[in-house]
Amino acid sequence: MKYVVTGGAGFVGSHLVKLLLNNGHSVTVIDNLHSGKKENLKSVFKQIKFEFGDIRNYEFLEKIMKNIDGVFHQAALTVVQDSFDNPEEYHDVNVNGTENIFKLAQKNNFKVVYASSSSVYGHKNKIPIEENVSRNPINPYGQTKLDDEFLVEKYSKKGVKIIGLRYFNIFGEGQTLQYAGVITKFLDRIKQNKSPIIFGDGSQIRDFIYVEDIVMANLLAMKSNINNLLVNIGTGKSITILELAKMFLEISKIKSEPIFENPLEGDIEKSQADIKLATESFNWKPKKMLNEWLTEIIKK
Ligand SMILES: NC(=O)c1ccc[n+]([C@@H]2O[C@H](COP(=O)([O-])OP(=O)(O)OC[C@H]3O[C@@H](n4cnc5c(N)ncnc54)[C@H](O)[C@@H]3O)[C@@H](O)[C@H]2O)c1
């Protein structure tokens, strides 16, 4: 099949490109290298087509997104804290850019599997979170992902095939430190023999999902007969940030305590997926758990 991956030079996108190539598909990457790097694709660069450009540019996308079987849309601005300072730019890239792809899917009749986020839910008291609960994002980044879901509802009614995968917190090789989540930041500290820094009291609950499991969910969603769905992609399990910090210290055998700093604005309290819908829809299950991966990585 002929696929386009937007944001293919990023963390998730580059893993996805490699999975698609390994499955014999032809891949075009669209990326403006805002946070992504060509280096992430170094091992496969000769096997792909790389198109440098911006998803906000409809004419640019129109030239590339024709005679294709599907688009895996990963490109976005992704940093929650930064979205408070630049809400308009976040809206422009994450919502207007996404709508360009939905419009072209309608025009050229291809399927889209795209990255939504657990941030659409906001604070939820009841975990695990099922897909049909109300969505109340608490930061501008999450709002852009919710606005995308409103677009999904609009374009699905017009017969456009769109599956939105609500990723929970992703970990894995190649996450950029600057933009990374807590795992990469803790790992960076541990590698320097320093204690992890926790923002807040560490009671925040998270569901961490391995990047290879995320990209497999993308492929299965694209291949499935299901055309329209918004679905959680997590492990269904959770850990507090304090437990996570202690896990890092234990595995690395560093005898120290975590450091606590002020809570971050827009940080969600509890996040854990209910994954029944994903399992039933795509016959998908996460394979690698966090403690297993951490043990491998820290011992390296
Ligand atoms: N990493 C996570 O934990 C997580 C969780 C939930 C959802 N997501 C979503 O998954 C997707 C991938 O995230 P990631 O962690 O790989 O982030 P990333 O920053 O590594 O990747 C995003 C990619 O999009 C590209 N990009 C940004 N703006 C662009 C534009 N205007 N035009 C073209 N390309 C552009 C970047 O250069 C980068 O390569 C994003 O949509 C993100 O919102 C990620």
Main beta sheet: strand number and arrangement?
Answer: 7 strands, parallel
| Cα separation of the termini | 37 Å
Order of helices and strands: EHEEHEHHEHEEHEEEHEEHEHH
Overall mean pLDDT score? 95
CATH architecture of the largest domain: 3-Layer(aba) Sandwich
Shape: globular
Lateral arrangement of strands in the main beta sheet: 3-2-1-4-5-6-11
**CATH-assigned homologous superfamily of the largest domain:** NAD(P)-binding Rossmann-like Domain
Q: Tell me the radius of gyration.
A: 19 Å
What's the total helix number?
10
**Small-molecule binders:** nicotinamide-adenine-dinucleotide
Looking at the structure, the CATH topology of the largest domain is Rossmann fold
List low-pLDDT spans: none
Helix content: 25-40%
CATH classification, class level of the largest domain: Alpha Beta
Instruction: Say how many strands there are.
Output: 13
* Total domain units: 2
Strand content: 15-25%
Structural class: alpha/beta
Describe the structure.
This protein has 300 residues and is of the alpha/beta class. The chain has 2 domains: 2-170 and 208-235 and 273-282, NAD(P)-binding Rossmann-like Domain (Rossmann fold, 3-Layer(aba) Sandwich); 175-205 and 238-270 and 290-299, UDP-galactose 4-epimerase, domain 1, CATH 3.90.25.10. The protein has 10 helices and 13 strands. It has a 7-stranded parallel β-sheet, sandwiched between helices. It has a two-stranded parallel sheet with strand order 7-10. Helix 1 links the parallel strand 1 (2-6) and strand 2. Helix 6 (182-191) packs parallel to helix 8. The mean pLDDT is 95. The chain binds nicotinamide-adenine-dinucleotide. Nicotinamide-adenine-dinucleotide binds next to helix 1, strand 2, helix 4, strand 5 and strand 7.
